[in-house]
Amino acid sequence: MVTSLSRPAARLEDIKPSPIRVIFDRAAELSAAGAKIHHLEIGRPDFDSPDVAKQATAEALRLGDVHYGPNAGTLELRTAIAEYLRERRGLRYQADGELLVTVGANEAVFLAIMAFCQPGDEVVVPVPAWAHYLSCIRLAGATPITVPLDADRGYRLDRDALAGAINERTRMVVLCTPNNPTGTVADRSDVDSVAGMLNGTNALLLSDEIYADLVYGTEHSSPAAHEELYPRTFSIGGFAKAFAMDGWRLGWLAGPRELIAPALRVRQYTTVCPNTFIQSGAVAALRCARAEAETMRRSFHARRDAALEVLRGTDRLRVAVPDGAFYLYLSYEPGSAEPAERFALRLLEEHHVAVVPGTAFDPQGGTHSLRVSYACSTEELTEGLRRIIAALETT
Predict the structure, then answer these.
(1) What are the counts of helices (DSSP H) followed by strands (DSSP E) for the chain?
(2) Please, which contacts does 303-307 make with residues 24 or more away whose CB atoms are closer than 8 Å?
(3) Which end of the chain is more exposed for a tag (fewer CB within 10 A), N or C?
(4) 256: CB partners within 8 A, 6+ apart
(5) What is the pLDDT along the chain (395 residues), one digit of tens a residue?
(6) Cβ–Cβ contacts within 10 Å for residue 230, how many?
(7) Taking the model in full, what pTM does it have?
(8) Are 26 and 33 a contacting pair, CB within 8 Å?
């Protein structure tokens, strides 16, 4: 029984523990017991952070850069991010007033939603999607409105369904491209269609582009580069995926100063400021580690192709070819295996393969889907996929 002393706030009633943690924690237990686990669940690069970033951080420590920094992050890093976005995305943001350095991309999502969404507001999210969007929306007291995407269409943006979900209560629309978990990349025509939908509304656009540097055979299109979308768009990015700096917990939130100023007010009473000395390492990564980032991208591309080759040999799993990120979103027929959360646990316990159940990204529509990460060696990836296929064939 929950006593009044231990009763959590009502805002947590709809915030459920992540299914990802169930897999992650059990995999850790099995590994500790001596099992060789094929880790296809991890959403981070298996590469080391760039040496140049480590060296710059060590030098900042040596020089005593260990005290509080500006709420928005150091001017040096904000300037480097502005340069990077201008060069790579065609986005023109001022370092002073239009950029926040955040504690990972997740804080950027949280700040944007908390600053502008409240009870009575609706936030439209195409699914499958990263679960943090829905939880942050609920924490703000707003209502998430999910728009299911069709596997038969490669999980591409359903323009009619998205337009139908937008109304006078819509305060924000979330777009993640490349997408986690599907790897789908929104093209220029998708961005144009979103601009048309939002024209004349009061809805903001949260554009999560954390995987924007990891695209294969296509081009990333940033919504904020669209003249009509720029005034209403938050652009989110970071260092975790493209630079293998996930443990550094650094990202950014960019937008017009009218949007960034309220987000900064939330930051002042939460994390206050990002870690100071590691920001020097982030500057070095942006300016001096492009070659390492490109080597990593090429490796992911090759791993993706190797995984698709394995999957071509079975009709038990369906996958939409991902054009970005480092995930495969697999689906299987309901009669061929148990629902995803139980199937993922069986894969882990009996076949020693860790994957994420699709319900982590789409609680209703992901009951027979799995997310596989190819941020691991090609050998581990292909063997893990073969074990998944074997588990389906022996069901």
Answers:
(1) 12, 13
(2) 303/374, 303/376, 303/378, 303/381, 304/216, 304/328, 304/374, 306/378, 306/381, 306/382, 307/372, 307/374, 307/381, 307/382, 307/385
(3) N
(4) 98, 230, 231
(5) 556 788 899 888 888 888 788 899 999 999 999 999 999 998 999 999 999 999 999 999 999 999 999 999 999 999 999 999 999 999 999 999 999 999 999 999 999 999 999 999 999 999 999 999 999 999 999 999 999 999 989 999 999 999 999 999 999 999 999 999 999 999 999 999 999 999 999 999 999 999 999 999 999 999 999 999 999 999 999 999 999 999 999 999 999 999 999 999 999 999 999 999 999 999 999 999 999 999 999 999 999 999 999 999 999 999 999 999 999 999 999 988 899 999 999 999 999 999 999 999 999 999 999 999 999 999 999 999 999 999 998 86
(6) 19
(7) 0.95
(8) no
Tokens of 330: 């697999």
Give just the sign of the alpha carbon dihedral 199, 230, 264, 104: positive
d(CA 388, CA 280): 43
**Cβ neighbours of 254 (radius 10 Å):** 27
What's at 14, amino acid-wise? D
